[in-house]
Task: inverse folding
């Protein structure tokens, strides 16, 4: 399970700008795509600052990615993330994605994994590239197990 500091991550994305009025939607769509490509059934909660009225945004969320906004007047994404970190039943099953050192320290104290925004961006792009590379290698270089090879040799060998 990933807990993601949304605007912190957007600030590091090369193709999303914090000034863009659709920046949150663009990030959520990227996260949903990453989750769908992932071999594991990963789940993510991405938290953004200043949502009105605050809470989970159902139109952006799906079964793998939950988009959550901090209440505008009395909270922040950092406060929401702090609370989620503190309340995590099994902290070792979580990974915090944030370059905020204060949040990272709180997560580490709870024995949560931590990835900086840049590390997560690299990870987001790696599965698709790795998957494609493995697929191309299989096409170019099919392999047989020893047992399969012996079976084929038995079938086609001349006695």
Result:
């Amino acid at each position: 399970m990933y807990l993601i500091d949304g605007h912190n991550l957007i600030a590091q994305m090369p193709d999303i700008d914090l000034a863009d009025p659709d920046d949150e939607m663009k990030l959520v769509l990227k996260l949903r795509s990453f989750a769908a490509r992932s071999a594991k059934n990963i789940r993510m909660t991405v938290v953004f600052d200043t949502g009105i009225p605050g809470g989970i945004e159902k139109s952006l969320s799906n079964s793998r990615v939950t988009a959550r906004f901090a209440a505008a007047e009395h909270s922040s994404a950092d406060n929401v993330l702090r609370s989620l970190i503190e309340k995590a039943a099994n902290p070792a099953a979580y990974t915090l994605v944030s370059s905020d050192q204060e949040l990272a320290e709180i997560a580490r104290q709870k024995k949560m994994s931590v990835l900086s925004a840049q590390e997560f961006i690299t990870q987001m792009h790696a599965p698709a590239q790795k998957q494609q590379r493995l697929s191309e290698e299989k096409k170019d270089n099919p392999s047989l197990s020893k047992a399969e090879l012996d079976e084929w040799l038995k079938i086609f060998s001349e006695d």
